[in-house]
Design a protein that fits this description.
2 copies of one chain form a homodimer. Chain A starts with a helix and ends in a 6-residue tail after the last strand. Helices cover 42% and strands 17% of the residues of chain A. In chain A, α1 packs across α2 and α2 packs across α3. Chain A folds into 3 domains: 53 residues, lambda repressor-like DNA-binding domains (434 Repressor (Amino-terminal Domain)), CATH 1.10.260; 128 residues, Rossmann fold, CATH 3.40.50; 132 residues, Response regulator (Rossmann fold), CATH 3.40.50.2300. At the A-B interface, α4, α5, β2, β3 and α6 of A face α4, α5, β2, β3 and α6 of B. The structure holds a DNA duplex.
Amino acid sequence: MVTIYDIAKKVGCASSTVSKALNNSKEISAKRKEEILAVAKEMGYVPNSSARRLATKNSWSIGVLFSEDLNIGLEHHFFGGVLQAFKTYVEALGYEVTFVSKKVGSQPLTYLEWCKYKNIDGVLILTVDVNDENLNELTQSGIPIVTVDNGLINVPTIISDNYQGTRMALEYLMLKGAKKIAHIAGPLRSYASTERLKGYKNVLSNADIPIDEKLIVEAHNFDFNSGKKALEELISQAEDMPDAIYAASDDIALGAIVGLKEMGYKVPEDVSVIGFDNIELTRYTSPSLTTVSQNKVTIGTEAAKHLIAIINKESTTDPGIIKRVPVELIIRESTK
Amino acid sequence: MVTIYDIAKKVGCASSTVSKALNNSKEISAKRKEEILAVAKEMGYVPNSSARRLATKNSWSIGVLFSEDLNIGLEHHFFGGVLQAFKTYVEALGYEVTFVSKKVGSQPLTYLEWCKYKNIDGVLILTVDVNDENLNELTQSGIPIVTVDNGLINVPTIISDNYQGTRMALEYLMLKGAKKIAHIAGPLRSYASTERLKGYKNVLSNADIPIDEKLIVEAHNFDFNSGKKALEELISQAEDMPDAIYAASDDIALGAIVGLKEMGYKVPEDVSVIGFDNIELTRYTSPSLTTVSQNKVTIGTEAAKHLIAIINKESTTDPGIIKRVPVELIIRESTK
DNA sequence: TTGTAAGCGTTATCAC
DNA sequence: GTGATAACGCTTACAA
C-alpha cells in the first residue's frame, strides 16, 4: 500500500505537503502540487478511508436502514427503485451508501450504535418494523434521518401524495358513474395506508356521499393474497354490491380482481377496480389495471436531497416537514 | 464519544487492558474483564470502526458492484432479491455491505481504487457493464470476487442452471406435441442469454430436430418491448409459423404474447409460450405464463457463501468454478 | 510556501 | 495479568 509518506520520500518533501496537494489546499505552490500529484498517480496512490475518517471525523457515508424481517423487501420494486434513485443522487455527491447492520463481527449492535460505530453522516430509513424497539433510539438521536413511505413520528418523510392520488382515483370513478365505491385499505400499520383511507373518507364526504363502513375492509398486507381475502370479506359484509373498488396497492387490486372473477363478476363491466403503485406488469394483466402511479425516482431523489440538506445543516430535521411527491392516474382497462 | 481511554480512566487501568477486555483476549483476568465490560456498557461505549480498521487492516465489509447505467436495475426483482439474500447471509456473519462507488467526495475513482480505499474484503458483482474498462482491473486484482448471473471471465459465478431450465422447457413443449419451437434469445451480451441459446440448440439436436436459424431471433434487451419487437421480427422471417416459443425472459415472453395477440394468434391455442424468471406477476397475466423459475434466494445465498469462503481462503477464485442453481418449470396457461 | 509534530481511537508488541 | 508505547495513515495547527 502506497502512503503519503512514500510519496513524500520520493518527491523529497514532507507528508503534510503531500496531504495539502491531495486535498486542494491553498497553502501550496502550483508547481509542487503538480509534481506531487504526478508522483502519486505514478505510484498508484489511493488514500485510506479509515485513516482519513479517523483524522477528519467526517465519514461521507450514508446508511440505509432496511429490515428484511418484513415481507416487503428489496425485491419489491418500489423500494428497489427508490433506493436506486437515492443511491445515484448521493453517490454523485461523493457519499457512499452502506446498509445499516445489526452487528459488527459477532457483536450485536443497535441501529444507533452501528451508526456511531461507523460515524455515519445520515440515514435513509427505507423499510423498518415500526415495532422495532431500536428504532426510537435512532430517530431521537439527532443523527440526520429521512424516511420514505413510512409514517415515523418526528422523522422527515418523503411520500407519495396519497391524498391527491386517492382523490384522482375516486373522482375518476365517480365521473364514470360509480355510486358505491368500496375501499380495500392496506394494512393500517402502514402510514401510507392510513393516508389513503383518510383520503377516501374525505373525498366521499366532500362529495356528500355518506360513508358506509361496510364498504371498507383492511387487507392484512399489501400482497395479492391479502387482496383476495379482503375482497371476499368485503363482498360478504357489504349490503349492496359495490360498483367500484379502490385498492391501496396494485397487488391488492389484482387479488381483488381474481376474487371477483371467481365469484362470477366481470371487471370492469360489473365492478371497476383501481390500484395504487403502477407496478410494471399491471399493463399486462387482464384486464390491465387502472392505477395511481408512484414516482419512485422522484421519491428517492427528494429523499436524498433532503437528507443531504440536513447533513449540511441547510435544513433541520423538522418533524413537521413532509414532502409529498405528486402521483399520476394511469387509466387502463379495469375501470369502465 | 466514549473512547477506551475514558473507560480506562474510570476503571483505573490502561487502555490496552480495556482493549483486551473488549476483544476477548486471554491475557486478562475474568474479574477485570467483567468490570471493564460493565463500565463500557454503562458509559455507552461504541467502538470506532475507522480506528479499528486502521489498526487491524481488517474491514469486515463487502462491496456490491451495481451499475445503474444498465437498464436492468435494483428495481428488477431478480437482482433486488438476490442482493437481499446475499445481504442477509453476510450480515449474519458480521460483514457490512456497501455499494461500490466511483467516487469519494468529488474525486473520481476506479472500482479497484475504491476497493483499496475502503480496504474492502470482497466484492459481489451484481450487474455491470461488461464493456466498462475499469472492470478488468478489478477482476484481475486478486480481491475476492464473486458474480451472479454474469459471465465474467475468470470470476466465480453463481448462476441459474440455464441448461437444465432450457431442457425442461423444451422437453415439456415437445411432450405436448410442439413441432416447431422458436427461440427469442435475450441480448447475447448477457452470458445467461448465450447459455439459454446454446441449450436450445443442444436440446433440439439431441432430439434430432434440425436447427432452423429462422426460428431464432435475438431481443435487444430483456424487457417487454424488446420481446414484442423480436416477435415481430421472428414472424416476418420464419417460413412456417412456429407452434411454440421459448423466450429468454418473462418480460420478453409477455411482449411476445401481446405481439401474437395483435397479429391475431391465440396463446396457447395457436402458439405456446414459455418464459424465464418467474417474476411475480406472471401468475396474473392473461394467459398466466408458463415459465422457468429462478431461485433468487439460493443464488444470493450461494454467492455469499462462496465469497466468504474465498475471503477466508477456504476456496480460491478458481476461474473454472461456476455454481449452477437448479431451476423449476412452472406450468401455467400459456402452454397447451 | 513548506515542514514539524500532535492528534484521531484502536490494536499489538513488549516489558514488567 | 497488566501497562507503556509504538504503530496504523491521515489531517491540521503551528512553527519555520
